[in-house]
Amino acid sequence: MRRSVQIKSVAILVLLVLTLCIWYAALREDHHGLLTVSFLDIGQGDSIFIQAPSGRQVLIDGGSNSSVLRALSNVTPWFDRSIDVVIGTHPDADHIGGLIDVFPRYTVSTIIQSSVLGDTALWNMFEKEVHEEDAMVVTARRGQIIDLGEGAYLEVLSPDRELLHTDTNTACVVTRLVYGTTAFMFSCDAPQGIENYLVSLDGTKLKSNVLKAGHHGSKTSSGPLFLGYVAPEYGVYSRGCDNSYGHPAQQTIDTFARFEIPTLDTCEEGTIIFVSDGITVSRR
To answer: How far is residue 130's CA from residue 96's CA, in Å, rounded to a whole number?
Structure first.
């Protein structure tokens, strides 16, 4: 009797493993040749999840709290407990707060962050989790390329130097995701001074299909010079409906309207997903 139970248990286990393998293969096939970018609905803050055609995954920021875990569960299979790259763009709570909950739940291979130092208890908790994750930790610097396989890559545009004790928004990690002839611009909370500096370095290489509006649509970001060079097909506001900052600012709304750039809003639409085949970008 005991042997029969053991055989049945092994058979069930084998079937379970085979089922997981089939689902995993199906999910990978679903992403074959496609880049998926999800602007997660995590309330006031930023959190962007990238699924490359190769299957590699990147999480840029995690919002302010554990709601990022629910948002991730909506765009990843339940058995997926690993993320290849996590980027904490800067020490502000609405960007790294949720990552404190991500690290214990997911195995992370590489963590990328700015050199700017935080001075809050939350920042200290974040640094503790980074240390305990036992991942490779990289300080972001302009010119770095994160290869995501099959022609997709993430390039760091800013900062271009070590910035230990400066304004956290000024030192935030600006990245541009490229796949084929398509691109996504993730400008964190970078102010217009940084945007204009990037234009001065080489504005011709900023063109992107989608732009995450800097600083959640604050009037301090998404300046006309930057928008003109990025020339996105879509702008995305990542923000909470009940935020006390007035995001997005009317000035920013007017700037996008002047350039005839349609905007989407995580407050109004929830998680916003784009798919690129390397030639065109469309909403899912």
So the answer is: 11
Phi, psi of 265 (to 5 degrees): -140, 120
Cα–Cα nearest to 178, from 200, 210, 215, 204: 210
Which CATH number characterizes residue 221's domain?
A: 3.60.15.10
As for how many domains the chain has, the answer is: 2
Residue 125: closest CA among 89, 94, 96, 105:
96
Is residue 55 within 8 A of residue 32, CB to CB? The reply is: no
Angle at the Cα of 35 from the Cα atoms of 34 and 41, rounded to 5 degrees? 130
Q: Are residues 11 and 59 in the same domain?
A: no
Residue 50 CA to residue 189 CA, distance in Å, equals: 19
pLDDT at residue 38 greater than cutoff 60: yes
**Measured between alpha carbons, how far is 35 from 279 in angstroms, rounded to an integer?**
11
Are residues 26 and 117 located together in one domain of the fold? no
Domain with 9, as residue range(s), is 1-31
d(CA 275, CA 279): 10
Say if residue 165 is exposed, middle or buried (CB neighbours under 10 Å; 0-12, 13-18, 19+). exposed
- pLDDT-based confidence at residue 14 (cuts at 50, 70, 90): very low
pLDDT tens-digit profile of 211-242? 999 999 999 999 999 999 999 999 999 999 98
Model confidence, pTM: 0.90
Same domain, 2 and 45: no
